[in-house]
Design a protein that fits this description.
The structure holds two protein chains of two kinds. By secondary structure, chain A is mainly alpha-helical. In chain A, 81% of the residues lie in helices and 0% in strands. The model of chain B has no long low-confidence stretch (mean pLDDT 83). Classes of the chains: A mainly alpha, B mainly alpha.
Amino acid sequence: MRKAWWFTIGVGIVYLVIFIINSNTFIKSLKFLLSLLAKIVPIFFLVFILMAIVNFFIKPQKLKQFFEKKKKLKWVLTILLGILSTGPIYMWYPLLADLKEKGMGYGLMACFLYNRAIKIPLLPLMFLYFSWRYIVLLLLLMIIVSVFQGILVDKIMEVVK
Amino acid sequence: MERANKAETKQKSYKNLNWQMEIKKKEQNKFKEFKQALFQAARGLWNASPLIIGTILLVSLISTLIPKVWYSKIFTGNSFIDSFLGSLAGSVSAGSPIISYIIAGELSKQGVGLVAITAFIVAWVTVGVVQLPAESAILGKKFAITRNLLSFLFSIIIAIVLVSILNII
């Protein structure tokens, strides 16, 4: 069994203990859980479809080739590459290491990793809790900050070297 | 003459057949890729599911057990302290951003300020204390530490700037 399931089982045990100690709290929590699930589950279908679309059209190797060809647009491409990349972050470390060997600077690497925080397929879930104004502003600020961070990382790494 | 015509027709039909087979092959490949994309998406959600389920269960429990007043004691309304605490909590947490949205959304319903919530979300996805060893090993220690420290600082800045802009608009 995967380690992550132990966390779920642990929380399940806490529920069981609470059911034994105070069944009223257990029922209240269960009601809250059901209302939360009713909101979230339909959105997960949308998230799934968006994830599949991104997986179908965006391939790491294709993006890498594209990135190597269009060096002039490197900041814009790095932002796009970061936003469109999927999967766990550690999956992308080897690709970044490869691009670093091919001349990608530390700043661009930092910019890429920062933009990985923007996940388009997960936006529907964000809309459930936050206003569109908040989300648009947050995304814009994160993109701007990613470039600032990239430039700063470049400068700091130069000084450190 | 007739023989030459026959040969030409035969060649054309061969070309047509080859072309049709190529199209069929491409369609099959596309279908395979589509199936792979669906499988990859399903696997991504499945991998995240234990933590998502556990978090939803935990959030439901905490929301019932902890009174709203408790949050107002921790998050005092001071932008700097709240964003710092939010960033700190987001930095040490790990997992899919989905979990951060659920926690942040429910916290905001409990009355926690937007500054702390924003700092929490941004730090969750940009600062990776848990992934730091892997990042250091592959991309370099100095780079990993610099990037994570800057991300932590920027999560506070983004939170304060965003809420200030929202207040103006």
